């Protein structure tokens, strides 16, 4: 298992609010909690930036992390991410923030310490781009956006 350094930026993390952790041995994501002082009402259509109270430093450029919505909150309450997916660079050392978007039609109150998103670590390949005038012809060529039909 890969080890990633993290910092606790709020004393409630690890005491009042549980540390980020995998819920089961098969979990792909660690739940991220809203590090709030008081409940925050997010009106329908509004977006707000929520602190998590933690910072990570991935360090290794062949890794990154993505912040993804929680399925239940997104499906049942319309609480998703304002940036759709949050990408955490391997050289980022600041606090993790969650852009929370209420895409639903009713206001939703986020409680301090509530699990509102999840953090997934992913492999990354950095490439060198090589400019050419022509590509070797592939079967698909320039066909895209439904070129191969629906079925
Ligand atoms: O949901 C997110 C997305 C990003 N970040 C942090 C980590 C990431 O490494 C940094 C920059 O993110 P990104 O590159 O997507 O933002 P940008 O708008 O392109 O800004 P920048 O100019 O800082 O790169 O912000 C978060 O805390 N939460």
Structural commentary:
It is globular and about 60 Å long. The termini are far apart. The chain has 151 residues and is mainly beta. 5% of the residues lie in helices and 36% in strands. The strands form 3 sheets. It has a 4-stranded antiparallel sheet. A 4-stranded antiparallel sheet has the order 2-10-5-7. Strands 3-9 form a two-stranded antiparallel ribbon. The mean pLDDT is 96. It has a single domain, classed as Deoxyuridine triphosphatase (dUTPase) (Deoxyuridine 5'-Triphosphate Nucleotidohydrolase, Chain A, Distorted Sandwich). Deoxyuridine-5'-triphosphate binds next to strand 7 and strand 8.
Please trace the helix and strand order, writing H or E for each element: EEEEEHEEEEE
Query: Strand count, sense and closure of the main sheet?
Result: 4 strands, antiparallel
Spatial arrangement of strands, main beta sheet: 1-4-8-6
Task: Tell me the span between the first and last alpha carbons.
Answer: 40 Å
The CATH homologous superfamily is called Deoxyuridine triphosphatase (dUTPase)
Specify the overall morphology: globular
Instruction: Extract low-pLDDT stretches.
Output: none
Supply the helix-strand structural class.
mainly beta
Tally of separate domains: 1
Keywords: Hydrolase, Magnesium, Metal-binding, Nucleotide metabolism
Domain dUTPase-like: 16-149
Catalytic activity: dUTP + H2O = dUMP + diphosphate + H(+)
Function: This enzyme is involved in nucleotide metabolism: it produces dUMP, the immediate precursor of thymidine nucleotides and it decreases the intracellular concentration of dUTP so that uracil cannot be incorporated into DNA.
